[in-house]
């Protein structure tokens, strides 16, 4: 059982690398998609990803209860590919429908805290199975400090989540310009 975090910037090739790892595993693939089509542009992105995926991969769409989905789908002979953690984080941050202020403190919904904790529990718990796991995430903290309290909060929370996930994963792979750099663990 191997848990791998694949992360990088927008259009870095992180999803393509994660999908390559999945294909090369020789295991049954369950693709867990976290995106929600909130507008036409996002619906187009989702449709593009669906078309690119091999037909033999099972797809599960789970926008909020990611830890439960991982625990439910993990079994020997499988690889779970989660794409992506930062969209999932966004879903949780806006799960209550709240509009956040441009300045001031941000109070995130309780669901954000409970589901984040449950994901980390699930990642530790599946360590006892023979199921491989590849998680895709964005690295959003390498640029300028964003304008607006919710944008800064998102950047902070994404960074914290990536650190926590990398700590429990066996491998952490940073992807830039389509090139994987293994920060933790060896390439397979």
Explain the layout of strands and helices:
Layout: E1 3-8, H1 14-25, E2 28-33, H2 40-52, E3 58-61, H3 66-73, E4 78-83, H4 85-93, H5 110-125, E5 132-138, H6 149-168, E6 171-176, E7 179-184
Q: Quote the beta fraction.
A: 15-25%
- The helix fraction, in percent, is 40-55%
Order of helices and strands: EHEHEHEHHEHEE
The side-by-side strand order for the widest beta sheet comes to 3-2-4-5-1-6-7
What is the number of helical segments per DSSP (H or I, 4+ residues)?
6
Structure description:
- The protein is 41% helix and 22% strand.
- It has helices at 14-25, 40-52, 66-73, 85-93, 110-125, 149-168; strands at 3-8, 28-33, 58-61, 78-83, 132-138, 171-176, 179-184.
- It has a 7-stranded mixed beta sheet with strand order 3-2-4-5-1-6-7, sandwiched between helices.
- Strand 6 and strand 7 form a beta hairpin.
- The chain starts with a strand and ends with a strand.
Highlighted features:
41% helix, 7-stranded mixed β-sheet, 188 residues, 6 helices, alpha/beta
Give a quick precis of the structure:
The chain has 188 residues and is an alpha/beta fold.
């Amino acid at each position: 059982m191997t848990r791998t975090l694949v992360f990088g910037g927008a259009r870095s090739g992180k999803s393509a690398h994660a999908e390559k790892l999945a294909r090369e595993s020789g295991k049954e693939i369950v693709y867990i998609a976290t995106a929600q089509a909130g507008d036409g542009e996002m619906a187009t992105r989702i449709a593009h990803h669906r078309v690119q995926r091999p037909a033999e991969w099972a797809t599960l769409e789970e926008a909020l209860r990611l830890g439960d989905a991982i625990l439910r789908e993990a079994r020997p002979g499988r690889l779970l590919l989660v794409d992506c953690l930062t969209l999932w984080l966004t879903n949780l941050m806006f799960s209550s429908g709240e509009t956040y202020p441009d300045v001031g403190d941000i109070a995130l919904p309780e669901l954000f805290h409970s589901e984040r904790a449950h994901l980390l529990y699930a990642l530790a718990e599946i360590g006892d199975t023979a199921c491989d796991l590849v998680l895709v995430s964005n690295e959003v903290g390498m640029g300028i400090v964003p304008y607006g309290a919710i944008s800064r909060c998102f950047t902070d929370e994404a960074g914290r989540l990536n650190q926590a996930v990398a700590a429990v994963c066996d491998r952490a792979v940073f992807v830039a310009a389509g090139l994987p750099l293994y920060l933790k663990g060896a390439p397979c």
